[in-house]
Amino acid sequence: MDSSDLDREALADLVEAVAQRGDKAAFARLFAYLAPRLKAFLLRLGTTNAAAEELVQEVMLTVWRKAASFDRRQSSATTWTFTIARNRRIDLIRRESKPGLDAGDPALVPAAPVPADVAVDENRRDETLRTAIAGLPPEQADLLKLAFYEGKSHAEIAAVRNLPLGTVKSRLRLAFNRLRSVMEPYL
Predict the structure, then answer these.
(1) pTM for the full model?
(2) Which of 13, 95, 109, 146 gives a 20 to 30 Å CA spacing to 80?
(3) Do 90 and 122 reside in the same domain of the chain?
(4) Contacts of 1 (CB under 8 A, 6+ apart)
(5) 109-137 pLDDT, tens per residue?
């Protein structure tokens, strides 16, 4: 029996022979039957000749590697193989449609270096803020850290610390007022 007269069951038998025994002769017959049909299918979908040949090779390699996942009760061998081919073509289109990098894209341009005087001022400001936070009463500093370092809402802080919501709000307001007075020169 040559490759041109394979029926549905014979194709399924060939895929299963590849899956169970790694049968190279069965794969060669499968390749001889399916490769030209896959290429014609891909060409009809608008794939270039070179891309179609490349995709056929990828599909048949996938058939060799994934033959064990074929189940003749769910689909025919040709349906299974053509589905792989369609998916590979979609992957190819997605890869080709991704735009290249634009060197002028602001996200790719490094930030301008910070002038030394600005860096010194920022460091001074940051150190002043750290010192001011360290100088807060512990209950205010604790709530401030929960609110800003851990991103908790006032209600969550009240629940975590077992405090009334009003107390949380008052302590945070007192902390902000103290920090504002210390940080006034930097605002």
Answers:
(1) 0.51
(2) 95
(3) no
(4) 10
(5) 788 888 898 888 889 999 999 999 999 99
